[in-house]
Automatic annotation (TrEMBL):
<feature type="disulfide bond" description="Redox-active">
    <location>
        <begin position="49"/>
        <end position="54"/>
    </location>
</feature>
<feature type="binding site">
    <location>
        <position position="211"/>
    </location>
    <ligand>
        <name>NAD(+)</name>
    </ligand>
</feature>
<dbReference type="GO" id="GO:0005737">
    <property type="term" value="C:cytoplasm"/>
</dbReference>
<feature type="binding site">
    <location>
        <position position="58"/>
    </location>
    <ligand>
        <name>FAD</name>
    </ligand>
</feature>
<keyword id="KW-0547">Nucleotide-binding</keyword>
<dbReference type="Pfam" id="PF07992">
    <property type="entry name" value="Pyr_redox_2"/>
</dbReference>
<keyword id="KW-1015">Disulfide bond</keyword>
<feature type="binding site">
    <location>
        <position position="122"/>
    </location>
    <ligand>
        <name>FAD</name>
    </ligand>
</feature>
<feature type="binding site">
    <location>
        <begin position="326"/>
        <end position="329"/>
    </location>
    <ligand>
        <name>FAD</name>
    </ligand>
</feature>
<dbReference type="InterPro" id="IPR012999">
    <property type="entry name" value="Pyr_OxRdtase_I_AS"/>
</dbReference>
<dbReference type="InterPro" id="IPR050151">
    <property type="entry name" value="Class-I_Pyr_Nuc-Dis_Oxidored"/>
</dbReference>
<feature type="binding site">
    <location>
        <position position="320"/>
    </location>
    <ligand>
        <name>FAD</name>
    </ligand>
</feature>
<comment type="similarity">
    <text>Belongs to the class-I pyridine nucleotide-disulfide oxidoreductase family.</text>
</comment>
<dbReference type="InterPro" id="IPR016156">
    <property type="entry name" value="FAD/NAD-linked_Rdtase_dimer_sf"/>
</dbReference>
<dbReference type="GO" id="GO:0050660">
    <property type="term" value="F:flavin adenine dinucleotide binding"/>
</dbReference>
<feature type="domain" description="Pyridine nucleotide-disulphide oxidoreductase dimerisation">
    <location>
        <begin position="354"/>
        <end position="463"/>
    </location>
</feature>
<keyword id="KW-0520">NAD</keyword>
Amino acid sequence: MANQFEVVVIGSGPAGYVAAIKAAQLGKKTAIIEKWVKDDGKTTWGGTCLNVGCIPSKALLQSSEMFAESAHGFEDHGIQIKSPKIDVAKMLERKDGIVNQLTTGVAGLLKGNGVTSFEGKGKLKSGKVVEVTKNDGSVEEIQAENVILAMGSIPVEIPPTPTDGDIIVDSTGALEFNEVPKRLGVIGAGVIGLELGSVWKRLGSDVVVLEAMDTFLAAADGAIAKDAFKSFTKKQGLDIRLGARVTGSEIKGKEVEVTYQDSEGEKKETFDKLVVAVGRRPYTEGCLSDDSGVKLDERGFIFVDDQCRTTVPGVYAVGDVVRGPMLAHKGSEEGIMVAEIIAGHNAQMNYDAIPNVIYTHPEIAWVGKTEEELKSEGVDYKAGAFPFAAIGRAMAAGDTQGQVKILADAKTDRVLGMHIFGLGASEMIAQGVIALEFASSAEDLQLTCFAHPTLSEAVHEAALAVDNMAIHKVNRKKR
């Protein structure tokens, strides 16, 4: 067979393209396959994250934050601006420009590293043969020594609210509104729902978030989630309704009537736009032949071991199609690990040190165990927290919401988790990741010199607070 490669990657998202580049850097003859085609008919690289996920949503979050600041925050600084207006078309144009720059950059990186690119849909067949159905309908086969499955994920749809691409949309559609909807409904108070709801709320929408669970951000530390809920609802005006299970919807002209059930019974709410953000599921449809040998678990994820090996020797799976959090950085690290393993190196990944971030304002970030998890596991721990309200840099920035919380083992002092709600949380959480990666103790952080004035001083003070030694707050009395 003419097309023979040592490594073939299906999917060019953060898991796939990183795996392909790393494999090529390690001297392997590598190919990558991508089926995503833009409206202009050209293939685009980078997967969901770069095209309709992480990057475009952050571009809109930044624009909406600047608009909100100019409308409500500048006066405290002595800056006078009369009634700022949002040009939605220009905002979307900026977002699209950033996306184009990054996706074009990925294509350049693949080419620059000698990765052969195939445009079309990849399908794994038996014997590690990969079938590529090109956009013109023609079919080509590639023989691989090793295959990396990195097809990513797609939004989950729910029967009560089928998307129509106009009134009822998924997360992709919520990035493309050509005007600010007056009444916006969001189903799901998870990462995507909160981020997208925040964008349009700041731009002027009346936003109602319907969340089926009774607990807000159950995966986050309870104290952090409580702080965040109070901020989003009381200060920012997001109408977040917990325990609200959507049971139906009906499009009436240019609006949609949503029916949901809560503790008080059945209720209805009417919106101009409705965003369905109830999660994502692995995308494997048409990507695995019946005789490929690759097995799926009961939830539809590709079954893999701790080093991302599937049930077929020489076939690996990474990113959103396998167990674990659906995070771009998790997928990228898995891609690097697998490329290293294929090259004969003994590579491992520390799944206990993967950071989680929600890019609301303020941001929410955490790594490691929550206090609730430690309690349920019977771990003897100690905790320290410090508010941004006592941090000079936060005061100067005019943003003192939230806190840093650190959890450590009561006997060994080893850091078990770090949780942040506040300005710059997405950047500061890396300090917690490094602490977990190097098995640091709370004392290690206590003895570290942090620059002043910085937001990161809250990390230092929280570490000191673990042992009731915080400097810039009164410590609780020891029992």
